[in-house]
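Incident review: delayed structure delivery

Summary: a single-chain prediction request sat in the queue longer than the usual turnaround. Root cause was a stuck worker, restarted by the on-call engineer. No data loss occurred. The affected request and its eventual output are reproduced below so the record is complete for anyone auditing the incident later.

Affected input:
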Amino acid sequence: MTQEDFNHATFSVSSVGNIGGKYFVPTILRPQAAIIAIGKAVKVPKYVGHHGSAHTWEPIDSISFSITADHRILDGATVARFS
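Output delivered after worker restart:
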């Protein structure tokens, strides 16, 4: 990739999950407004309720992601709602 690949872009998506990463600190490349880094999908337990005295759990896929945004352009609440 070259700088030309990012010219005139406003938002980037990066995947660190394909190499096993869970969290990342994405860095904005100016003039972009934001970047999101998507982590590896993992199975985690999800509580779905209880039947009598037994609690029920089921496995679900979960991903982690990290967002960096330029707060001169985007309000933090807007970024939080997006996430």
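Verification: The longest strand covers residues 42-51.
Action items: add queue-age alerting; document worker restart procedure.
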